[in-house]
Amino acid sequence: MGVGDLSHADSGEVKARARGPQDKNYRSLNSFLEDVQSPDTEPELISVSELDVLMLRNDPAEDAAERPWAQASGVLFGQLAAASGVLVVNDPVHLADAVNKTYFQHFPEEVRPRTLISRTGADIKDFVKDLGGRAVLKPLQGSGGQGVFLIDGKKGQNLNQIIETIVRDGFVVVQEYLEEGEKGDVRLFVMNGRPLEVDGKVAAFRRVNEDDDVRSNMHVGGKAVKVKVTEAMLEVVRLARPKLIKDGMFLVGLDIVGDKLMEANVFSPGGLGSAKALHEVDFAAAVIEALEQKMLLRASYGPSLANVALATM
Fold it and tell me: At what angle do helices 121-130 and 159-167 cross, to 10 degrees?
């Protein structure tokens, strides 16, 4: 089901026009998806309260232009579903707090690069100067590498024009440039507050861009390659864990450069398929198994376990 398939009925129920598989067996994931997504597959009106789990997977980068209503709507319907007793992951109450990059500022200072959030040109230029003339500028809202600029004082860029471009849509995030970023960043999956690991392999990969583009996001041509998970990366996860647990963030993609956390993708962390291909391990199966374990806990404890707590148990 998509966000646009959800509705709040007069009875107070959250309804959805959902599509499911028509056959019992499929030769591949592709054939399964083709069936579910086929225009010939008739949607069925269901009550969301009948579901065990509702996983919210909005992609802010894709929704920003075409469906600006979708992200907030998904979170709000998720809150209604959680109130009806459905396990909703990630926790929709705290997803509402994460709609822009200010959420990132609540992680410990040790794991964050030096950062300024402002709309004042003079303050932004002073901070860039304080950083030695090299910094990354990006919009407060948005993802997928959209509107990201690398400022290098030696290249004679028009900083005023770049600031004006970003300010049109809101606040500017200014971050120190990390030299390690030239090798790309690392997407590391965290589930229940810990690295997602199967058979001794952690779901992680390095995203690199083969040209001079500072952005390594897959949306803008980034390529996934194998990476060795270091103690520094695991320390970033350890320091981020309390915040992720407290907020009920079941499945998260942490983007790490060196020993710094650049971003925490709590809405639609993509790349499990890339991790599976690189490590030859089915990490998605581990995600489903973790959700099944939560259903066993729900059966034993009932509504005494709040959604935010059960989400990361």
Answer: 130
Q: How far apart are CA 310 and CA 96, in angstroms?
A: 18
Instruction: Decide: 54 and 19 in contact? Cβ < 8 Å.
Output: no
Report whether the peptide linkage leading into residue 160 is cis, meaning its omega lies within 30 degrees of zero: no
Look at strands 53-55 and 87-89 and give their pairing: parallel
CB 268 within 8 Å of CB 250 = no
The full set of domains in the chain, from first to last, is: 3-97 (no CATH), 114-177 (3.30.1490.20), 180-288 (3.30.470.20)
pLDDT at 233: 97
Q: What predicted TM-score, i.e. pTM, was given to this entire model?
A: 0.89
CA proximity to 101, closest of 308, 229, 235, 255? 255
The whole-angstrom distance between residue 286's C-alpha and the CA centroid of its chain comes to 18
> How far, in Å, CA of 276 to CA of 127, rounded?
41
CA distance 231 to 91: 29
Name the least confident of 8-17, 53-62, 271-280.
53-62
Residues 6 or more apart whose Cβ sits within 8 Å of residue 29: none
Angle between helices 283-301 and 272-279 in degrees, nearest 10: 120
Could you tell me if 23 and 35 are in contact, meaning their C-beta atoms sit under 8 angstroms apart? yes
User: Please, what is the end-to-end C-alpha distance for the chain in angstroms?
Assistant: 26
